[in-house]
Design a protein that fits this description.
alpha+beta, five-stranded mixed β-sheet, 65% helix
């Protein structure tokens, strides 16, 4: 037995030595004979942004040549760059004609373009080395994929607005159709290619998804403390039974909290409180919730961390928390005051129908009925919520996504409180809302990948004609109208390079006014419909879960004109201040 083991060990050692010798021979082998050509470059759009997954073809004397690497094709990476090495017969260069071609679905193909080749010496074996650098610019073109993606996006919004299907089913079905068409029709004809599965998954903003999930868990835990019912009693007592005063107080509180806590989180905290108040008053909670979510978006516009578009803008442009407050807080305050009184007038019928009989007796009843039921859990929740808010405020310092703060805070709270995570995931996390966002992100990515959103952005650039006043108005209003129907997060991300380009080319734009135009347009415009901003979707979803449904058109009827008023106020402010 021992001899057999020694024999096997010797065989293994022999094989190991043989493998090492073979590897050494390969490493020591001379490079293949011939002219070695290295070509590199960038493929960008007209705005200078790199384009990934562009197929680059190299031609020598009109004939396609393959790179030395195992890959049969040269494809640009995520930043839009490409590098490829080629081995040509000795003496081919520098006399040969070297050209490159580039192609990608939804982009105009670049025909064979001559490349300047420069000799760069020789290697140890005497092979001549050559190098070339060629940067290319691709322009958009309308393909069958463009029209299909645009049509699916339009149909998604139409079906949601007419309530022919549940919005979650509509958005996810639209996403599935886009990917299905890419891998069927797009397989036979590249003009039908829309977006790959990997790119569709990559378009899902997990920062938004996990932020929502984390804060839903926070709310789920805090609901068990009785704190929301206690706050409902306090708000009612402060208003002394006057529903108009109560509605105004709730709007102001929501706006202020949203400025320092993102608007989605604020609504997740306010919705249970508001429903408790509305049930007590025997009115439809949506009469209070719609003005609140509107105020939430207005208040969130005032700071860097209040609204996701502001987080994107601040990160891209390097703007600080103080700069957002200095430039946006005043106009947001004016918008809040104006729209608060508008909603008091709009909802006056509901408020007057509230059941307010014996205020003192009702307050005494609420004080007895709505008490803190678990003080220990409430203290734990408030401490972790405070810690999470601190992380939100410092996220720029750590370069940390806000979703990380939300997840850490909520999961640590679950750990120290002993609450059941399975129960939270099953009953407190609003999965239809999260799935709706996932599908919507993918549908919009399809429209973006085929050039629809970029077309809108380029139209703004061309129409401004180099005039700052025109650019301010266009960026503001296009962002506002588009954000009302297209979720303002992906639209803002698309507009960032456009605004950056305008800042460099339009005289007077160095002040950064166009960043504030984008922020005000995207954030305030998101108030126009129930799908324009994340907070709207969450509010509608949780209201529906509680048994209070509102249609797309009813929401738009209540919020469209106050949205237009706030954007008009923002336009006047920008034109006067800058």
């Amino acid at each position: 037995m021992r001899q057999r083991m020694v024999f096997c060990l010797n065989i293994l050692i022999f094989l190991l030595i043989a493998g090492l010798l073979a590897a050494s021979a390969v490493l020591a082998a001379p490079a293949p004979a011939g002219d070695h050509l290295a070509i590199s470059g960038m493929v960008t759009n007209p705005m200078g942004k790199g384009i990934k997954e562009v197929e680059v073809e190299v031609l020598v004397n009109g004939r396609h040549v393959k790179p030395t690497a195992k890959e049969a094709e040269v494809i640009t990476g995520k930043p839009g760059g490409f590098v490829a090495d080629f081995i040509l017969p000795p003496g081919t260069l520098p006399a040969a004609k070297v050209e490159v071609k580039a192609a990608k679905p939804s982009w105009k193909s670049i025909p064979a373009t001559p490349v300047k080749v420069v000799e760069a010496g020789a290697d140890a074996q005497g092979n001549k080395l050559f190098q070339a650098v060629q940067n290319l610019t691709l322009n958009r073109t309308t393909t069958a994929g463009f029209w299909i993606a645009s049509l699916i996006l339009l149909l998604v919004y139409v079906v949601i607005s007419l309530e022919l299907m549940h919005r979650t089913l509509v958005s996810f079905l639209g996403a599935a159709l886009i990917i299905f068409i890419t891998y069927t029709l797009g397989h036979w004809d590249r003009s039908f290619y829309i977006i790959s599965f990997d790119d569709a998954i990559g378009a899902i903003d997990l920062n938004v998804i996990f932020l929502l999930m984390g804060m839903m868990i926070f709310v789920g835990v805090m609901k068990k403390t009785g704190m929301f019912q206690f706050l409902a009693y306090k708000a009612y007592a402060l208003a002394k039974g006057n529903v108009f005063v109560l509605a105004f107080i709730l709007q102001v509180i929501t706006a202020v909290v949203s400025a320092f806590l993102d608007n989605v989180t604020t609504m997740l905290l306010m919705i249970p409180v508001t429903i408790e108040i509305a049930v007590t008053l025997k009115i439809n909670p949506l009469a209070l919730l719609i003005p609140e979510v509107f105020a939430s978006n207005v208040g969130g516009t005032a700071t860097l961390i209040g609204d996701p578009p502001n987080i994107l803008i601040g990160s891209y442009a390097g703007l600080s928390f103080g700069q957002f407050v200095t430039n946006l807080a005043l106009v947001c305050t004016v918008c809040l005051i104006v729209t608060s009184f508008f909603f008091l007038w709009w909802q006056k019928k509901d408020y007057r129908g509230a059941e307010v009989k014996d205020v003192a007796r009702t307050i005494a009843y609420l004080k007895t009925e709505y008490q803190i039921t678990n003080k220990k859990l409430m203290i734990q929740s408030l401490l972790m919520l405070g810690f999470t808010i601190l992380l939100f405020a410092l996220h720029g310092l750590f370069h940390m996504p806000v979703s990380v703060a939300a997840l850490v805070g909520s999961l640590v709270l679950l750990a120290i409180s002993g609450e059941d995570i399975v129960e939270m995931l099953e009953h407190e996390v609003e999965w239809p809302t999260l799935v709706f966002f996932i599908g919507l992100f993918m549908v919009i990515a399809g429209a973006e990948e085929t050039g629809l959103i970029q077309m809108i952005a380029n139209w703004v650039k061309d129409l401004s004609g180099g005039n700052l006043t025109t650019a301010i108005i266009l960026v503001l209003w296009v962002s506002a109208i588009a954000s009302a129907f297209i979720d303002n997060i992906p639209f803002t991300a698309t507009m960032l390079p456009i605004v950056a380009f305008l800042n460099q080319t339009i005289p007077g734009a160095e002040s950064g006014v166009l960043w504030w135009s984008l922020a005000l347009g995207a954030c305030l415009g998101g108030n126009g419909t129930m799908i324009g901003a994340s907070a709207n979707v969450v509010t509608v979803g949780l209201s529906e879960k509680a048994g209070y449904h509102i249609s797309f058109m009813a929401y738009m009827k209540a919020c469209w004109w106050p949205m237009m008023i706030t954007v008009t106020i923002a336009m006047v402010y920008l034109l006067i201040a800058y």
